[in-house]
Amino acid sequence: MDDRRLQHRHWIGLFAAALCVRALYALQISTSPLYALPPVDGKTYVQLAFILADGNWLGRGLGPYWQPPLYPYVLGLLKLTTTEYFFHAIRLLQILLGSLNCALIYVLATRWHDPRLGLGAASIAVVYGPLIFFDAEVLPATLATSLNLIGLLLLDRAMHQHKRLPFAVGGSVFGLAALTVASTLSFVAVAAAWIGWRKRAVAPAALFLLGTCLVIAPVSWRNYAIGKDAVLLSYNSGINFYIGNNADYEQTLHLRPGWEWDDLVGEPKAKGILASSQQSTYFWDKARSFITEQPLQYLGLQARKAGNFLHGDEVGRNQDIYYWRNYSTLLSALLWKAGIAFPFGLLAPFALLGLALSLRRGLTLEVLFVLVYSAGVIAFFPTARYRIPVLPLLIISAVYGGRWLYQRIQLRDQRPLWGGLALSVVVALWANAPGAPMQMEGDAEIHYNLGQAYAKQRRGEQAIAHFTRAVALDSTYWQAWLNLGSLSALQGNFQSAREIFERVAQAQPQRPEVWVNLAHTSMGLGQNKAAVDAYKRALSVDPRQPRIYAELWQLHFQRGEFSQAKEVLALAIEHYPRDREKLLRLFTEIRQRTAQ
């Protein structure tokens, strides 16, 4: 059998093996309520996908894109063609892409090294726990990885041809990758310079950049023409850079979705900065101020983030990855911490050795991507999700480094062997240094997410159980308290709900929804005077709440307090002067309805 035919069989076999493994994992986690109700970023991607699939493909009325848009557009197309099986379709697409990634690892490793190394690297990728995990998450990591690998393959081929058009094709694929995960742009910029240097010509580099720009240009046009603002891709770059570059890094990195996150995002608006591009600039400026005013602390933070990038711990972003082992025996076997933070704690030492060995051959495309992409992740903040697109190349480097050590041992080549072992041992000690425990019982945030999911499924008892667990783990998780109170009220436990809302109101008096909930439970207890007071507190916090005016009018009319209702009407007109006639009609309608 010739080599090409054998490699073709390897390619198919790896794809099939990866598909089976990922399909098994997707089947196992389908029992989780989060499978069809993804939290945080997954939720925002799905929400945008639904808007697009409803026919608003340009996103009219949404402003510039908050996140890079390619992934929600892909989801939107899936939603258009699948309804009942939408979340199964997402997993099917992503496990196909994840399986393709394993095959692409084989192809790239074979081109850069040899088929045996390619087979070893791709086989590791087939059973690599974090890759399997993210292939089944409603997140863009898998799509970005596929596009980056395809782009690397096209660029590598272009570098070995005498034609220039392939550079534009490769650049366009990296443009699609940037529309999925914007950090790819840092590689595009450096790669263009590298192409010009290696080819000793400007044209190939210019065509590579042109390919990227032609793909990105329609999104930039859409943001300007439809979103009414000059935003290149999306405007979340500023806040993401600030999260990873400020004096309170740990606090901002672990901000919870919901109130805490909204408070941070809302800072520019609270200061009168309304344009999306200016809001992003606001956070870029805050980060730059930290860098210039505290340069030593900034440098120390970068070193710390670089160390975190190399650590074996799979740091979740908004949810604990290790908790998902509860749903999957497969993931339990492929992702764990017990002395070794498996698998990255085992991979990292050999990957760094492989990179160091590859550098002896010069600045190759393989090394360039790893260094530039990793630096881009570290410049913002390293978590497991953002490390995923560079993992395929780290796996290739790890197999290369491991094989080199094995060969040195066989050859009894002592001097380089000891140097390689020393580097590997140092990195291994760091990568497997004690970190956070796996927390298989879950942290407060995962229980909050589960509570939200069960509540949407109208499974009140399970939702209450998880919200109760969340506040037991963190007594200051006020949004979990609020949801717990709301569910208690829905079950008719008004006194318990009132006590919860009073507790939250004392800690978070600036939240109008807390006072509204307190008003509702007060009415449930027949304490209408207390309800009026709670409504007024809500309006004092945020007077631009049309629903509260209507509810307060109705309550005043029920209590026969016409003059007080007119005072609330005057306040509503003061804040909505253009809607005076509409408010007067609504006021009269509620009065008449209440009198009947």
Residue-averaged pLDDT:
94
Radius of gyration: 28 Å
Number of strands: 2
Shape summary:
elongated
The side-by-side strand order for the widest beta sheet comes to 1-2
Percentage of residues assigned to helices: over 70%
Give the low-confidence spans.
none
Q: End-to-end span in angstroms?
A: 90 Å
Beta content comes to: under 5%
Main beta-sheet annotation: 2 strands, antiparallel
Give me the number of helical elements. Answer: 31
Class inferred from helices and paired strands: mainly alpha
Describe this structure in words.
This protein has 596 residues and is mostly helical. 73% of the residues lie in helices and 1% in strands. The chain has 31 helices and 2 strands. The protein has helices at 3-29, 40-53, 70-81, 86-112, 115-126, 129-135, 141-159, 165-178, 184-199, 202-225, 237-243, 249-253, 259-265, 267-270, 276-293, 295-310, 329-334, 344-359, 365-380, 384-387, 391-411, 414-431, 444-456, 460-473, 478-490, 494-507, 512-524, 528-541, 546-558, 562-575, 580-595, and strands spanning 336-338, 340-342. A two-stranded antiparallel ribbon has the order 1-2. Strand 1 and strand 2 form a beta hairpin. Helix 16 (295-310) crosses helix 19 (365-380) and helix 18 (344-359) packs across helix 22 (414-431). The relative contact order is 0.07.
